[in-house]
Design a protein that fits this description.
Strand content of chain B: 25-35%
Structural class of chain A: alpha/beta
Mean pLDDT of chain A: 93
Largest sheet of chain A: 7 strands, parallel
Structural class of chain B: alpha+beta
Number of strands of chain B: 3
Oligomer: heterodimer
Mean pLDDT of chain B: 92
Order of helices and strands of chain A: EHEHEHEHEEHHEHEH
CATH class of chain B: Alpha Beta
CATH architecture of chain A: 3-Layer(aba) Sandwich
Number of helices of chain A: 8
Helix content of chain B: 25-40%
Largest interface: A-B, 25 and 34 residues
Chain lengths: 223, 86
């Protein structure tokens, strides 16, 4: 047999990254700031979005795309806090969203009425780290009911994120969780991370989060 | 389990380079996987073993090289073009 070798030298994620670049260009030309919320399941992303929509939904023209392996439960919950269409992407087993799904979801959103877009990714601290969606930044959410060493166990996710939200701080009196140690581990992985300490349930710590979101919109062209 | 998504993408790129009518002749697909690429190599290898040995492929196999860094790259495809050895 004669074996012939074809040189390829192509990045496997190139197609997704190309689609992500086109999503990013579309969002930037519409002057929309887009954040990709990533976390393990149950960290409080949906509750955080509910509170954020209650306070800023109308003011900042917030739109949401949710991703879940099965069910539209998160989208249904969020829809009760906004008059806008919530785009639910059910991945049917896939553990992450990809740029093509976001591109399709954007087709159904009124971009002219949108200034801030949240993508609630599938709850998973591994796979979504590898897929760019055209977002301005990833925001990793973790909670005090998880271990302090989440950043060390899932370094790629914390390295790929520009912001980190430590949620469920209302439970700190009841759980053995060392905040300084957790933030230290996160900084070890990514020294540039900017933190928010919140309880999406009680509202504690949300004012700095809201101020940050307002500043991203008022700054005009998100970096 | 995004390794299966990645494996499908590897197959798509392979088809792009060799053509749909040559997929049964693919014998090896070479990949470079960085240790920071966020990929479980054994899992990816398993997914590729299944896909490359099932239609529209024939009897292909993956050859994975581990590297430092976060690169994830399809480096080459070997095909048996059916012609006799020189």
């Amino acid at each position: 047999m004669a074996v012939r070798t074809i040189e390829v030298r192509e990045r496997v994620m190139a197609k997704n990254d190309e689609l992500a670049a086109s999503v990013r260009e579309r969002l930037q030309s519409a002057e929309i700031a887009a954040f990709n919320l990533v976390s393990s399941p149950g960290s409080g992303k949906t509750t955080l979005l509910e509170r954020t929509l209650d306070t800023l939904g109308e003011e900042l023209g917030v739109a949401v795309i949710t991703g879940d392996v099965q069910t539209q439960n998160d989208a249904d919950r969020i829809a009760k806090h906004t008059t806008r269409l919530v785009q639910a992407v059910v991945t049917g087993g896939a553990c992450h969203l990809d740029a093509r799904q976001i591109s399709t979801a954007l087709d159904a959103l009124d971009l002219d009425e949108t200034r801030l877009l949240f993508i609630e990714n599938v709850g998973n601290l591994v796979c979504p780290a590898s897929w760019s969606l055209g977002e301005e930044a990833k925001i990793v959410v973790f909670s005090v009911t998880e271990g302090e060493d989440k950043p060390l166990k899932y370094p790629k996710m914390f390295r790929e994120s520009r912001y980190a939200i430590l949620n469920k701080i209302d439970l700190l009196p009841h759980v053995p969780f060392d905040v300084d140690r957790a933030l230290g581990y996160a900084r070890d992985v990514n020294p540039d991370l900017q933190f928010f300490l919140t309880s999406a349930l009680t509202g504690d710590g949300l004012d700095p989060w809201f101020a940050f979101l307002r500043s991203r919109i008022l700054s005009g062209n998100p970096a | 389990m995004h390794e299966m998504s990645i494996a499908h993408e590897v197959c798509r790129i392979t088809e792009e380079h060799v053509g749909a009518d040559q997929l049964t002749h693919v014998v090896e697909v070479g990949l470079e996987v960085g240790d920071q690429a966020g990929v479980e190599v054994a899992n990816l290898e398993f997914c590729l073993e299944i896909l490359l040995s099932s239609p529209p492929f024939g009897h292909g196999r993956p050859a994975i090289t581990r590297l430092a860094g976060d690169d994830l790259r399809l480096s080459y495809v070997e095909i048996d073009d059916g012609s006799p050895d020189d």
